[in-house]
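Progress against Task 2.4 (sequence-to-structure conversion) is shown through the following example record, which the project officer requested during the mid-term review.
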Amino acid sequence: MTETAAARVRELNLYRRYFELVAAGQKTIEVRVKYPHLEDLAAGDSIRFRIKGTDETCDVLVKRVTEYKSFEELLDGEGPLNVNPASSREQQLANIRDIYPAEKEALGALAIEIELPQMVSRCRIAAPLSRSSGPGTTPTSTPPEARRSVTESTWLPKLDRRLPKGHIRRGTAPSCQR
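Structure tokens generated for the chain above:
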């Protein structure tokens, strides 16, 4: 996607446990350190969350960005249930501080209110690799023009629930990307 002044798309990594909460619409506040590359993040931007090391992505819309001096202040201001409905406030604070040490927290904490898009987006999924024709041959990937768009519901195994169309993107395997 092309980044424009009107609607920017940021790509951020997310641990699987948090990714699943975002994809299910249960996590509405994302916590980040105020790094320079996030200083101009604003309502109307989009974030594409990616589970590091996979091609699983989930696009969300940014509704609001609020800066806090500390993670503790952020949890008190936003409410721990919005950050992670599966953990207590104390456990969330410990988890956040495991991810971001004190020197990072000193940069400031961002509470990013997010929501899943209302419109159905089209996901791009690569067709499976072709089968090899015999021993010693290498499977070939399907060229990008042969990829198909998929709009049916996507199953998220750990949550055992169907998501609205287009919320999770599964792209090509890293070896198949352009």
